[in-house]
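During the reporting period the student researcher (J.K.) took over the structure-prediction task from the postdoctoral fellow and processed the backlog of single-chain submissions. One of the processed entries is reproduced below for the supervisory committee.
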Amino acid sequence: MPSVALWRELERPFDLATALNRLAGALLAIHEYAAAQQAYEECRDIYQSLGYRRGVALAIQNLGGVALIWVTTFAPGHYFVMPCEYATI
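J.K. obtained the following structure tokens:
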């Protein structure tokens, strides 16, 4: 996405995290679950490095959404933990 590249180049981490969050939502819409998870994780990490707790919480919630979609799509009726990292808020 051009905006992700732009904010990365301009070294604007808050705007980069926001762009990554939006990119991940678009990736979910086209069923690119692994890429969406990566974008949400990077978003979470950036927000955490900035101390922006609300952003960290949003990214973690969105990661939960990815896991829920993945489980209900690929493993209905089965319960397991999708591999992901946890962040402290």
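The committee noted the following: The mean pLDDT is 86.
J.K. will present the remaining backlog at the next meeting.
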